[in-house]
Amino acid sequence: MSVTRTTCPYCGVGCGVTIDPSGQVTGDRDHPANFGRLCSKGSALGETLALPNRLLSPRLHGKAIGWDAALDEVAARFADAIAQHGPDSVAIYGSGQLLTEDYYVANKLMKGCIGTGNMDTNSRLCMASTVAGQKRAFGGDIVPGQYEDLEQADLVVLVGSNTAWCHPVLYQRLIAAKQKRGTRIVVIDPRRTATTEDATLHLAVKPGGDVALFNGLLIYLIDHLQTNHLFNSSVTGLAAAEEMARAHLRTLERDTGLSQAELYLFYDWFARTEKVVTVFSQGVNQSSAGTDKVNAIINVHLATGRIGRPGMGPLSATGQPNAMGGREVGGLANQLAAHLDIDGTADRDLLARFWKLPRVADKPGLKAVDLFTAAADGKIQALWIMATNPMVSLPDADVVRRALERCPFVIVSDIVADSDTARRAHLLLPAAGWGEKDGTVTNSERRISRQRAFRSLPDGVKPDWWAICEVGKRLGFSEQFAFQGPADIFREHAALSGFENDGRRVFDISALDGITAADYEGLKPFCWPWRKGEQPTARLFADGRFPTPDGKARIVPVAPRPPVHTPRKKRPLILNTARLRDQWHTMTRTGIVERLGQHRPVPQLHIHPDDAGDIQSGQLVEVTSDWGRALLIADITADGRAGEVAAMMHWTAATGSGAEIGPVVNPAVDPVSGQPELKHTPVSI
Ligand code: SF4
């Protein structure tokens, strides 16, 4: 056996990994995302291959059954529900862990064959506000730049992102560049984190203050830059955005919680530096104003033309390894495959023609929180959950629990049998895990990489794409699901991206239309778009043209808006949720590696000394919201702002700790993106 080149399954940096026959994992020196680097989690991948409690056969009501019987049951339940209650009574809830090929067939089944928009994913918790903000600004869900822009910038602004812990290899690249060229780093985060330690300036912004902060910057830029520095001919909406921003200028310091000196220092640096990259992540996205925050950030780049050129632009750092790939094939309930628009008749007709179907879903489906609320209300008859644990990750776990109890048939595809969600399923389907499955993923810089199998499938285990196709065939769509493997699916995905594409759709990988299985096997990482007859495209929008009807980008007027739930006497503190450096999701993988657990071994509640009263570090405390409670170990620290506490998201009920924070979190969502406000819940201790 030779060395296998694959991709790390943990985060949106999308590092290349090589694995030798002994299971030794190293960073892939040829992969353009990491050039050989790995973080602590990626380095430990070889130690996570033998997962305990592996699910090795389908189980119906706890009893092992064969795959044929299991798939017959899924198809029969879906068919019955559709016949009796219509297509919108069934749903799939997927994950940024799925490979693009899995996502593609899941979307084809739901939005094409069944005709419902009810295919959503846990990327709704991660990226949905960025998707909505980018679509509003650029006319498409498009990341303009590249990782190398971080190394070419003179000022890097990190907003709502503990990059040092959550995107470690990207951070290593930034710090190496800082050492070389003296890059200024501004970190905008209510908390002091590992990332703020390297910051030239840390702005401990008030939660919810980002729109005000960037609106203030927009005004400063308009007032202090010569107008010929503005990107006027390529954008529209600047006057309306300026008017909106000026209307709130009086309350800028109150809205941001920052002093005039802090604000003006940042604004001055931004105005004086041409090469600026603004990286934003969950602190921006996981908010009831997430989409507006994304647009406030993009606005300042558009207004000054700091986009599409080396060392410039807004860059969304994706949480999950394949949140972006899922979006390319319509992974969110309000999308269709190939960035086609579910609200557009012409786009729907195009997709129906390509898939040889009479029609496709003609309206958006239920977004994650709404989907589980609908299931709890008895409106979903069959729900298929893949590669995710919504009992832990969605807000308001009581609603999720009721949804799983009330829905007549819940299918869970996973690699383990004992997740909080799997324990409530009627049918469990054993899925292939990392190292066993083949396909592609897309990282935060639009780079598509292969994830390759290097181990044989355990007996009884099947990849998700196969299970979905088998259900599709059983529902009468043999022609649509006649795929022999992931290469066939990718080939169709590439063909669709170029189908009747006159250049309006930026997502285009038609250069790979007709790719052979051998070429798919050897496919090297590349950035889309990769149009037929052209080379892959690194940076977009350098020409000042955007995929909107008039070719101009939109500067979107946005007004500061407070979070939905504000603290009050009974719940005086604000709970923020965050992630650890060495753990991933609910610790199903990283939790079995002892040395990763040593970094932060217990679930803590970080409390400011001003709020601690008699509470001492190390004491057990209960944190309570209007939605639930959790038990955590107090850590008295001034890392956060007074009045704010923080907890990590990794602990689950399955560990028996009582430390799961999901039930405490409020279910408010962004009205545009549907992304939950996971970082702002009023609580008491
Ligand atoms: Fe994996 Fe992300 Fe670490 Fe890279 S930075 S090794 S993708 S977890």
Measured by DSSP, the beta-strand proportion falls in 15-25%
Please report the total strand number as a whole number.
Answer: 26
Class by helix and strand content?
alpha/beta
CATH class of the largest domain: Alpha Beta
Distance between the termini: 55 Å
CATH topology name of the largest domain, in short, is Rossmann fold
Query: Which runs of at least 5 residues are low in confidence (pLDDT < 50)?
Result: none
CATH architecture of the largest domain: 3-Layer(aba) Sandwich
Please characterize this protein's 3D structure.
This protein is 31% helix and 15% strand. It contains 23 helices and 26 strands. It has a seven-stranded mixed sheet with strand order 5-4-16-15-14-6-7, with helices on both faces. By secondary structure, it is of the alpha/beta class. The protein folds into four domains: 4-48, N-terminal domain of TfIIb; 59-124 and 322-527, Rossmann fold, CATH 3.40.50.740; 128-317, Dimethylsulfoxide Reductase, domain 2; 573-665, Barwin-like endoglucanases (Beta Barrel). The longest helix is centred in the N-terminal third of the chain and has 19 residues, at 67-85. Strand 23 and strand 24 (629-636) form a beta hairpin. The model has no long low-confidence stretch (mean pLDDT 94). The protein is globular. Bound molecules: iron/sulfur cluster. Iron/sulfur cluster is lined by residues 8, 10-11, 13-15, 34, 38-39, 41-42, 167-169. Iron/sulfur cluster binds next to helix 1 and helix 7.
